[in-house]
Amino acid sequence: MKAAAIHILVKTKPEAEKILKQLEKGEDFAKLAKTLYLPFSKARW
Length: 45
Fold this sequence. Notes:
Layout: H1 13-24, H2 29-36, H3 40-43
């Protein structure tokens, strides 16, 4: 089975903006998603 991510879940807007800047510089989405995402179960704040 293969899965595809279409977003990276983070807690704060500054975190999201930092990731967006990294993506704009050409960083790999899959790599960032794998290392920076917040699991949904932990995102319920």
